[in-house]
Structure formats: C-alpha cells, structure tokens
Request: fold
Amino acid sequence: MEQRLLEHDDTFRYQLLDRLRIDCNYYLGYGNQNPHYLWAGSVEEQINTMKELWESFPADSKPEWLTWEQILEYERDMCVE
Reply:
C-alpha cells in the first residue's frame, strides 16, 4: 500500500476501510470473485491495505464495525482457489 494513504486523516481512512469492506462483500457475492471489483485490484493488495488501514488507528479508535478477526475471515474466504 502506498504510504500516502496513511497520511490522511482518520475520517478518510475510516471511509476507505469501509469502501474496501464493501468491495469484499461484493466480490464474495454478486461480483463472482472478479478482482476487477476490488479497489486495490487484487485480493492480496485489498487485504493488505485493509490490515494496514485498520492497524493505523490507535487501540482506542479501532473501527467497531470491522474487527481484525473479520479482516482475517475476508482473507480466508477470498483467498480460496
């Protein structure tokens, strides 16, 4: 992931993380696992970006609507060949 994404304010990073989460849901559903529908362009980059964004928040400001375990679940579900 580009370092400049982490330089944005919390609001931007929250919004981007939510966008990535929504993309994952679409990819696993109506998107028929087509990486074209992922913001990052590939499953690996999408998950890595989500992890880095999630980790960029202080412990007391982590998103309540997306846990680390859920990101790992997306990774398991989406990396199935």
